[in-house]
Amino acid sequence: MQNKAIEDYLQAIYEIEAEHERVSTTALAEWIGVKPASATAMLKKLSDMGLVMYEPYQGAVLSEKGKTHALEIIRHHQLLELFLAEVLDVPWDRVYEEAHRIEHALSEYIETRIDEVLGHPTKCPHGTPIPSADGTVVPRSWVRLADLHTGQTAIVSRVSDYDAELLRHLSTLHIVPQTTLTVTAVAPFEGPVTVRIGEEEQVIGHQVAKHIFVEDMHEKPEEH
């Protein structure tokens, strides 16, 4: 599949569907950056192609065929992100945009070579699991930092990667995957979250905290 617009939509639907049972036209339009009418037209097209199951006013979900295509392009994107970061030393706030430029033209041969050179990685620079070549995806077990309570200690598993400004801001706060933090205060009514990282405390706005995904250390299985 070499249609950039279709691949972008499939990738967006997959990401939204990971947190919602069905993907609404409004949510999809906001993610892509188009008007709802354009998103609706594309959903109808994807439905005709057998890539999504779409019902007007009820939203859409990927079909198995659509999910396969979505995971393929996501794998391309995430391998490219890691290659750009580790081999070309591209800053982590730029790899999303640069990978997005290339992902649609990546051949299966180059994908395989990148995977081999990187040692068959399992996560992108921002902590998102990379789908395997056969489409297997590690189940997502993280929660949003915004949903933690005072006193909880967690490890940052992933951060949203599509907003360069957000990534630069998180870097200044020293919040990257594998960072351990403890919530010391949560303001009411969607107020900021205060966390301790090492000996320092950082105040994180609620909207930013929604883009930081963590794993509660007390819920991690014991390692043997």
Explain the overall architecture.
- α1 packs across α2 (25-32), α1 (4-17) packs across α4 and α2 (25-32) crosses α3.
- Residues 220-224 have low confidence and may be disordered.
- By secondary structure, this protein is of the alpha+beta class.
- 33% of the residues are buried.
- A hairpin with a 6-residue loop joins β5 (180-186) and β6 (193-197).
- The strands form two sheets. A six-stranded antiparallel β-sheet has the order 3-8-4-5-6-7. The protein has a two-stranded antiparallel sheet with strand order 1-2.
- It contains eight helices and eight strands.
Q: SSE order, as H and E?
A: HHHEEHHHEEHEEEHE
Structural class: alpha+beta
Query: Approximately how much helix is present in the residues?
Result: 25-40%
Shape: globular
Major sheet strand order: 3-8-4-5-6-7
| DSSP strand tally | 8
Radius of gyration, in Å, reads 18 Å
Please give the alpha-carbon distance between the first and last residues. 43 Å
Low-confidence stretches: 220-224
Main sheet makeup: 6 strands, antiparallel
Percent in strands: 15-25%
The helix count comes to 8
Q: Estimate the mean pLDDT confidence.
A: 92
Brief sketch in words of this structure:
With 224 residues, this protein is an alpha+beta fold. It has helices at residues 4-17, 25-32, 36-48, 64-86, 95-102, 108-117, 164-172, 206-209, and strands at 52-55, 59-62, 143-144, 153-159, 180-186, 193-197, 200-204, 212-216.
